[in-house]
Design a protein that fits this description.
It is a single chain. This protein is mainly α. It has 9 helices and 2 strands; from the N terminus they run αβααααβαααα. The protein has a two-stranded antiparallel sheet.
Length: 208
């Protein structure tokens, strides 16, 4: 990869390289512990992007919640300025390598296209000073995304993905768009939850 390539292109290629290393070892699955090891225990921002991408892949029941709590743990470590260490209940969960590698290769292609429009700008919004606010915001969003309602977390996850992408690409304008999408997703999520509660209460009152 040339030195002139956008930062995000170098980072997504790093994701693919890490997964190829795991695949080359012959393992068909990898744990979240192994994923952190492959990406690097200090690669907080890269892991957050990786996790938001994983959350777009359909998984078994509880998969989304595991991704959300893993994202929370990574963001917490970033806020505390510590290497990423996951609790065993999360770190020992396994992921299939082949689909992840295939998806990551597609991400690299899409990233190359998006990088034509996203570029380093308003860097003060993505620099070291933004690490703690970014981490805290990600933690709060991750907690809300543990709600086990199908499809309710799609919009906030896309927003977090855009935010993670922009933070890595040093694109402050993109980060603002990502935050906006996250807040929109949260508003939709809250409205749906309150709507479901009201419908449930109305049904109960009707029966009584």
């Amino acid at each position: 990869m040339s030195r002139g390539a956008p930062p995000i292109v170098r980072y997504t290629n790093r994701i693919v390289a890490g997964l190829k290393t795991v695949a080359a070892s012959g393992d068909e699955k990898l744990t979240f512990h192994r994923l952190v090891e492959a990406m690097g225990p200090g690669a907080h921002r890269l892991l957050i992007l990786m996790l938001t991408l994983l959350n777009m892949i359909p998984g078994p029941p509880g998969f989304g919640g595991t991704i959300a709590w893993t994202t929370f743990a990574v963001a917490l470590a970033m806020v505390l300025g510590r290497p990423i260490r996951l609790p065993g209940i999360i770190g020992n969960r396994k992921l299939p390598v082949a689909p992840l590698l295939k998806a990551s290769e597609q991400v690299v292609r899409v990233t190359g296209i998006i990088a034509r429009f996203s570029r380093p700008r308003l860097r003060w919004l993505t620099g070291a000073a933004a690490t703690i606010p970014y981490g805290v915001f990600t933690m709060v969003l991750s907690v809300t995304m543990t709600v086990p309602i199908p499809f309710i977390n799609a919009v906030p996850n896309v927003g977090l993905c855009v935010l993670a992408f922009s933070m890595l690409n040093r694109d402050g304008a993109g980060a603002v768009i990502g935050v906006g999408l996250c807040l929109l997703g949260l508003a939709i999520e809250i409205a749906l939850i309150f709507g479901a509660i009201n419908v449930g209460m109305h049904a109960v009152n009707t029966v009584l």
